[in-house]
Specification:
- This protein has a 6-stranded antiparallel sheet with strand order 6-3-2-1-7-8, with no helix packed on it. A 3-stranded antiparallel sheet has the order 9-10-11, with no helix packed on it. A two-stranded antiparallel sheet has the order 4-5.
- A hairpin with an 8-residue loop joins strand 1 and strand 2 (20-27).
- The chain has no helices and 11 strands.
- By secondary structure, the chain is mainly beta.
Length: 105
């Protein structure tokens, strides 16, 4: 998967389409991510002893990686992610926009 924690992404599908946020958690085996402030569900919970307070809890739910697009740090536009071998032999993520083609840190 080409998305990592703290990447800035744009939601391209779903009810939160057009919103931006940073990835807080990545689930590699399920190909899902949790994006800050996006796909928020409301849960009504009872208090369970002294551990948790009851009430309405807003919780960010995971969304599939196909529904988000990485925002390039150089051109500030949503892009697909490519890969390139650098001169020192390491593999790096690359913006695939026509005018940009820069390495994403």
């Amino acid at each position: 998967m080409k998305l990592r924690t703290s990447d800035n992404v744009l939601v391209i599908k779903g009810r939160d389409r057009g919103k931006q946020g940073s990835i807080t958690r990545v689930f590699l085996d399920k190909r899902k991510v949790i994006v800050e402030g996006v796909n928020v569900a409301v849960r009504h919970t009872k208090a369970t002893g002294t551990v948790r307070q009851g009430g309405i809890i807003r919780k960010e739910m995971p969304m599939h990686t196909a529904n988000v697009m990485l925002i390039c740090t150089h051109c500030n536009r949503p892009t697909r992610v490519g890969s390139r071998r650098l001169a020192d032999g390491t593999k790096a993520r690359v913006c695939t926009r026509q005018g940009c083609r820069e390495v994403i840190e």
